[in-house]
């Protein structure tokens, strides 16, 4: 089975925050959103959209102008060959801008939806003000003499570690997403199968299912 190996990079962060993920090419963009949220440690608390050569895609319930439904496009349909890329934006206020780069196509025997191969650093806390707000947060965290040091620790939580990257925790959550499953034959196909006799076989189309809700 063919899978896409993609690199997800959170732009405008220094040092860079990134993830390397293997994902099913047939995954719908709304399900890819679920994967990216888990990989980055986001909490699915804001709007999102994908910018692709075929236009913008978002959840139709958001009613974002000039966007198509992310439920009606797959990663394979909007991402070309290796080294091609698309953009994923999360939280239009903070403006978290991610690049999704197709590094290569790989072969796997086991059907999965996605799993993480590697990465670096924790995703920023939600609502910290985007890349520039996050940079300011890190500066004050590293300076015990800063007047904002204690308040930022209280806000972000004493357990926050910008250098932490827990691949096992990420893959545990990704493992809860259902792998691609064959769709059941349509009613007409079932009828045709019965009329053709027990020896007739009908093709099954691959599908993607997920056990995550899109919104809170």
Describe this structure as you would to a colleague.
There is one protein chain. The chain has 216 residues and is of the alpha+beta class. It folds into two domains: 2-121 and 165-198, MM3350-like (Structural Genomics Hypothetical 15.5 Kd Protein In mrcA-pckA Intergenic Region, Chain A, Roll), CATH 3.10.290; 123-162, no CATH class. The protein has helices at residues 29-40, 75-78, 130-141, 149-156, 167-174, 187-196, and strands at residues 2-10, 17-23, 48-52, 55-58, 67-69, 85-90, 96-107, 114-120, 181-182, 206-207. The strands form two sheets. It has an eight-stranded mixed beta sheet. Strand 1 and strand 2 form a beta hairpin. The longest helix has 12 residues, at 29-40. Mean pLDDT is 86; it is low at 189-216.
CATH class of the largest domain: Alpha Beta
Largest beta-sheet details? 8 strands, mixed
Taken together, the total number of domains comes to: 2
| Whole-angstrom Rg | 20 Å
How many DSSP H or I helices?
Answer: 6
Strand content: 25-35%
Q: What sort of overall outline do the alpha carbons produce when their principal axes are compared?
A: globular
Estimate the helix proportion, in percent. Answer: 25-40%
The helix/strand class is alpha+beta
- Uncertain stretches: 189-216
Q: Which CATH architecture of the largest domain would you pick?
A: Roll
Averaged pLDDT: 86
Give the neighbour order of strands across the main sheet.
Answer: 5-4-3-6-7-1-2-8
């Amino acid at each position: 089975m063919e899978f896409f190996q993609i690199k997800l990079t959170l732009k405008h962060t220094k040092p860079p925050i990134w993830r390397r993920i293997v994902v099913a090419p047939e995954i719908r963009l709304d399900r890819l959103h679920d994967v990216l949220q888990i990989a980055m440690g986001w909490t699915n608390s804001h709007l999102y959209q994908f910018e692709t050569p075929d236009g913008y895609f978002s959840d139709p319930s958001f009613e974002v102008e000039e966007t198509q439904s992310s439920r009606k496009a797959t990663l394979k349909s909007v991402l070309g060959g290796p080294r091609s890329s698309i953009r994923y934006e999360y939280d239009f206020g903070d403006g978290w801008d991610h690049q999704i780069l197709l590094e290569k196509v790989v072969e796997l025997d086991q059907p999965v939806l996605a799993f993480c191969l590697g990465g670096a650093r924790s995703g920023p806390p939600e609502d910290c003000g985007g890349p520039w707000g996050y940079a300011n947060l890190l500066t004050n965290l590293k300076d015990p003499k800063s007047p904002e040091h204690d308040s930022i620790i209280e806000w972000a939580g004493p357990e926050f570690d910008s250098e932490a990257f827990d691949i096992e925790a990420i893959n545990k959550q990704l493992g809860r997403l259902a792998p691609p499953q064959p769709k059941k034959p349509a009613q007409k196909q079932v009828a045709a199968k019965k009329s053709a006799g027990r020896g007739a076989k009908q093709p099954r189309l691959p599908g993607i299912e997920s056990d995550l809700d899109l919104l809170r």
